[in-house]
Amino acid sequence: MRILAIETSCDETAAAIVEEAGGQPKIITNIVASQIDIHKETGGVIPEVAARMHAEVMPAVLGQATKNKTLDFDAVAVTIGPGLIGSLLIGLAAAKTIAQVKNIPFYAVNHLEGHIYSAWLEKRILGASNGSGRQRYNNLIAGKDTSEGLPELPALILIVSGGHTELILMKRHLHYQLLGATRDDAAGEAFDKIARLLDLGYPGGPAISQLAVHGKADEFDLPIALPENDELDFSFSGLKAAVALKVSKMSQPIAAHTKADIATSFQDTVAKTLVRKTLAAIRLNPGIKSFCLVGGVAANTHLRTELTQAINQNHPEITVTIPLIEYCTDNAAMIGAAAIYRSMFSQPDNWYNVQADPSLGLGSN
Ligand code: KG4
Ligand code: ZN
Fold first, then answer.
1. Could you tell me the pTM of the whole model?
2. Is 204 in the pocket of ligand 1 (CB under 6 A)?
3. 110 CB under 6 A from ligand 1?
4. Which ligand sits closest to the CA of 162?
5. How far is the CA of 159 from the centre of ligand 1 (A)?
6. What is the pLDDT of residue 256?
7. pLDDT of residue 198
8. Cα of 329 to ligand 1 centre, how many Å?
9. Quick one: pLDDT band at residue 130, thresholds 50, 70, 90?
10. Bond prior to 323 in cis (omega within 30° of 0)
11. With DSSP H G I counted as helix, E B as strand and the rest as coil, what are the percentages for the chain, rounded to 5?
12. CB 148: neighbour CB atoms within 10 A?
């Protein structure tokens, strides 16, 4: 089974061909046309502009993903939500057209399901557990492809993206039990807002993590929200407000080293919060075999390190899987990976009845 996957939920126009090889999704091509340079000018994504860009570059992206139509495929998959409605509709229209004209199976994929299955991409995952040796651990931290085995179920998934922060228990493929979610801002949203506050530009996550290398984490005392031991929900709006309050009391312009200290303290507080909640979820759900960190914020090196170390130290029996950095942020290979599992464990969708849904939740299939 070879699947052409399309992803246009936000500001990346992406297409990929993913193939099932030995029960695992293998990437054949993976094209991402980023709109970052355009949205940098406005300091964020303007939905109308994003949709227009998707429409303009979609033919070229599909051409590259199929190597100028020389690569054939047996099915098509597309993100139907959550995301920006105009952006979603461009990808959906392209996928429906292809499914209709070629008369091939069609898979409507939830964007969050795509992020989850980025941890199952063949030869693109990293594994680490205590008994696995220093080299493997170093590879994980450095973001090198170690081609380790796939995550075993039951798996605990932490999705940290621009729109979502969720802890999910996955006992079977395609079945998702929501253990905790953010009550206000998502982790990535908090990174983006703090970056704006410090005038670091868009997107905020990479800017904060670069600056954070130079700062001191204990310079600013920032709050961890909802710290109770059995509380698996998140809240990041208080953290953002605490940083905003400190910044408002500083004389302007803020010195570069102070900005770095704020970035480091903020990033460390987010990491500590995510570690605390992850360990609580493991404690409250005995029997978890693997932990997967996915979504755009999973590209953060400090977070990758802190979560891997915490699980290795406290639960050496649990394997940690984090996708290579390029598969943490939005891409179509992960949508293809989810569709491969749909093709193995479920049925295709009737494209005629499928609608885009900007606020689609993660249900069970
Ligand atoms: O998954 P993603 O590409 O899109 C959504 O589904 O939202 O995530 C984008 C988010 C943005 O908020 C961005 O600032 C954040 O991921 N991000 C990072 C890093 N790279 C991207 N956050 C922290 N550190 C990074 N290195
Ligand atoms: Zn995403």
1. 0.94
2. yes
3. no
4. 1
5. 11
6. 95
7. 95
8. 6
9. very low
10. no
11. 45, 20, 35
12. 19
